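Hello Y.,

Per our agreement to keep a running log of every chain we model this quarter, I'm adding this entry. I've kept the format consistent with earlier entries: sequence first, then predicted structure.
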Amino acid sequence: MSDISKLAAVQMASGPNTTANLIEAERLIGLAAEAGAGLVVLPENFAFMGKQDRDLLTLVESNGIGQLQDFLARTALRYGVWIVGGTIPLRANNPERVRSATLIYNAHGDRVARYDKMHLFDVVLPDANERYQESATIEPGDQSPVVDTPFGRLGVLVCYDLRFPEAARRMLDSGLEILAIPAAFTALTGKAHWETLIRARAIENLAYVVAAAQGGFHLSGRETHGHSMIVDPWGNVLAQIERGVGQICCALDRDRQASIRRTFPVLDHRRLKCR
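Predicted structure for the entry above:
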């Protein structure tokens, strides 16, 4: 019998009302659990998207203590699912900045891993008249944990990290099998590159990718691309939400993944390693 589990991605259009965002996140996690998901990935900034980046400072929590961390632990336990908790702002070394942290909770509500966003989105998009400087608010992380789960070895990239294939390759050296990607891609860059980048990370690492995005218009005036998707190790898009709020859930077949890696041994043919 094939070893099959279910993975889910949640898509939101979060705003500055944290209470409303958490209610919506829990509703969507519940729907994913009802559909049979054992692992649910939330989007970047699922609990709060303010009018400007520095608004995150008003919501910052200490590591291990706070409303958002309590919510993730409680919800994972309530629905009996593993949760990749999008990103939340945790205290940084610099008091004027935060860490954009992805916390992973198991089905008992225990936190098992933390990843701090490593690559910061400091870009100008003249075609959209948009400018971003995450480094003014966010302090980058430097660790890429890969954690054992009932679904396989799980790693995380956040949004802009997706553009740096060596980040996934480093996790591959630690046994990566599933890649969770919380994101809030802009409408412009998402249209150009989102699906291509996600499918590339799946294909080159022969990994499942669960990409959970913000998708819609936000009070800041920003428009996010959406198109949350789950992609298999051969690059097939198994499920996708185009715009708006929702969740997708589909099967992960670990036996098929192992067969692909065995019969198409590209990972064994690598000549260069990430340091």
